[in-house]
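To: structure subgroup
Subject: Chain for Friday's discussion

All,

I'm putting the inputs and outputs inline so they're searchable in the archive.
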Amino acid sequence: MNLEEQIETLNEVADIIGGEIRDNYSGRGMYGRQCYGIECDNPVECIEQAALNGITGANYDQMGLQYIVYWPRIRNMD
């Protein structure tokens, strides 16, 4: 799956779970590099839905009341 297909799939996952896609998240240990993520209420649901669509390797962080699930290997190339 190429980057464009992965991004399209993440957008579909975000729609399914009621999340919001972000293309500029820098997670733990990423040292400023940015990747794609989904802000959501339930990280397990998000990770499972992405895995069902062929995207694995997620991490997540808690952001107050919500979470962000992010994929360090799906990098923003801007």
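Points worth raising on Friday:
The CA atoms of residues 58 and 74 lie 10 Å apart.
Helices lie at 3-17, 43-52.

D.
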